Amino acid sequence: FVLSVVAGKTHGPSSTAVGDGLKQAFAGHEAEFVLEARDIIGNQRVVGDDPFEVELVGPATPQISVFDRDDGTYLVTYVVTDTGQYTVRVSLYGLQIAGSPFTVTVMPGRVVAVRCTGVGRGLTRAYAGEEARFTVESRDVNRNKTTSGAKKFQVAIRGIISPTVHCIAGDDGEFHYSYRTARAGVYFVAVMLDGIDVGGAPFKLTVDPGPTHANGCSAAGPGITGGYTGMETSFVVQARDFYGNARATGGDVFNISIGGTASARMRMRDNENGTYTVAYTPEIGGDYFISVQHNGIDIQGS
Question: Which parts of the chain register pLDDT below 50?
Fold first, then answer.
């Protein structure tokens, strides 16, 4: 006699699952595992058509596919976009299979240049002479922070001058950059990874003058070199920072004194654009001395 014994009806709690996709996955990449249909005593079935239900619960809702191989096994594939801990539940007719639920850790994917981000004031705004800073964050295709494939970005600042940029590697795929420039003006910050711009790059950077400093300020105009008795003459004080960058706002306090042969009537007007007009009328001919100070320090030429 020839006797053929086949597995019995599929039993959910006796069925099993195997594969890396039950333990870990990478955001944005397809993960998989295999379901093995078994009868109540553990014999593997060799035919399909079992209505297994697969549920993945976590930070994001995944795309799940169950493919019946018609040999008692089922290929389960899924894709999740967010990192974190997920719970995988597999059941048949309301009964979970052996080992279910499973815990899956979804890790970030590899760095994708166009998804990386730059943060920090130093990317778009700085002041002459200050150490400006910004950070570039390594991110995967779904904008998750990642260390997979993370490496220093190529950063260059171009403008009136090209300041040196320093880099310190941080945690979680972050890289911290700093620079210093003495010249105010418009610059562009290029940030690239393997020759590809990160998101938003190149960044437009405006470097404003630093605080007013007497060593950088200047004065010019006919009133600096001479005048006529009884006739008003004038000169203009230009507020500048320590590096000589012209300031474009007012509000500075300059102390003006005119001495010499005699006193002179004097008035000063804040033009609210970084310049200050000083007008005076000498009453008597002779030699005069003009002192212009800011915070007790003489400006250039004074």
Answer: none
Contacts of 4 (CB under 8 A, 6+ apart): none
Q: Are 191 and 165 in contact (CB under 8 A)?
A: no
Taking CA atoms, 89 is separated from 23, 51, 206, in Å, by: 13, 14, 54
DSSP state, residue 7: -
Nearest-angstrom CA–CA distance, 222 and 230: 15
Tokens, residue 4? 């053929």
CB of 198 closer than 8 Å to CB of 116? yes
Per-residue exposure over 215-254, b if at least 16 CB sit within 10 Å of its own CB, e if not: ebbbbeeebbeebeeeeebbbbbbbbbbbbbbbeeeebeb
Give the model confidence (pLDDT) of 224-258 as tens digits: 888 888 888 999 999 999 999 999 999 999 999 88
Return the residue matching tokens 């915070």. 295
With beta carbons less than 8 A apart as the criterion, state whether 275 and 236 touch: yes
47 and 73 Cβ atoms separated by less than 8 Å:
no
Tell me how far apart the alpha carbons of residues 34 and 149 are, in angstroms, rounded to a whole number.
Answer: 29
pLDDT digits (tens, 9 = 90+) for 179-190: 999 999 999 999
Cα dihedral 242, 248, 251, 256 in deg (nearest 10): 60
Provide φ and ψ at 274, rounded to 5°. Answer: 95, -5
Contact 203, 155 (CB under 8 A): no
Please report the pLDDT score of residue 119 as a whole number: 96
Which has the closest alpha carbon to 206: 159, 240, 272, 274? 159
- The tokens for 163 are 């300041």
